[in-house]
Design goal:
The structure holds two protein chains of two kinds. By secondary structure, chain A is mostly helical. Helices cover about 60% and strands about 0% of the residues of chain A. Chain A is globular, with a radius of gyration of 16 Å. Chain B contains four helices and no strands. In chain B, helix 3 crosses helix 4. Classes of the chains: A mainly alpha, B mainly alpha.
């Protein structure tokens, strides 16, 4: 589906996202992994606009898992519930992740010929809870309006 | 036992559904971590794939495919 974009930053981000999902033992690659993939591109316009880093995102995911477990009365001590045994191969995409990627590609085509990771960030910023990326952004304290403003400044 | 499951239902229902669903995912990921570590340990202690499969409730072949190096 994305073959024609090989080696673009967009593909680099999606590849990083798939690797994140695999490493973390996720059953599916979801929108939260796409966000992690974006954060891999240190120094990119997307990461600068977001103003958070990968470490913060890992910590936030861990925190979300701990809180969820605590809510049902499970205390996992110092184990890391957000992680799992890495899978052998990258898991398939959730249908939402697939839709998000298609939308990002479509938006990029409509505006420029350049598939920029910023288009992906825009689509992720539009996601609403309980979308996993939206949950993660909320936990990171990311203000969507501020991020959109920063992206706009960059674009003009 | 019946009492416990009622209690769990109550805890889950006291929160947003996202929380219960996330907890289920986190438990699953934790179980995978424990399974991988315990299988490695058992192999080093000389357990056969059949014994490990029996303990995990899966076939010898599945255990080997999943955890064999």
């Amino acid at each position: 589906m994305f073959d024609q974009f090989t080696s673009s930053p967009f593909v680099v981000v999606v590849t990083a996202a798939r690797e994140e999902a695999r490493q973390r033992g996720a059953k599916r690659m979801g929108t939260e992994h796409l966000l992690l993939g974006l954060l891999h591109e240190t120094g990119s316009a997307s990461v600068r606009a977001l103003g958070v880093d990968l470490e913060a995102a890992y910590a936030a995911l861990e925190e979300l898992d701990r809180e969820a477990l605590h809510a049902i009365g499970v205390d996992v001590g110092d184990l890391a519930p957000a992680l799992s045994a890495p899978a052998r191969t990258a898991p398939p995409l959730t249908s939402t992740a697939q839709a998000v990627l298609s939308q990002a590609v479509k938006n990029a085509k409509a505006r420029t010929r350049d598939i920029d990771t910023v288009h992906l960030l825009h689509v992720l910023l539009d996601r609403k809870r309980p979308d996993p990326a939206a949950e993660l952004l909320a936990r990171l304290g990311v203000d969507r309006g501020v991020v959109r403003g920063r992206l706009q400044e960059r674009g003009s | 036992m019946e009492h416990d499951s009622e209690d769990l239902t109550q805890r889950v229902e006291a929160h947003d559904p996202a929380l219960g669903l996330r907890a289920a995912g986190a438990l699953h990921r934790l179980a995978e971590q424990v399974e991988a570590a315990a299988t490695g340990h058992a192999r080093r202690q000389g357990w056969s794939w059949e014994q490990i499969g029996d303990a995990l409730g899966m076939s010898r072949q599945s255990a080997h495919t999943k955890h064999g190096k």
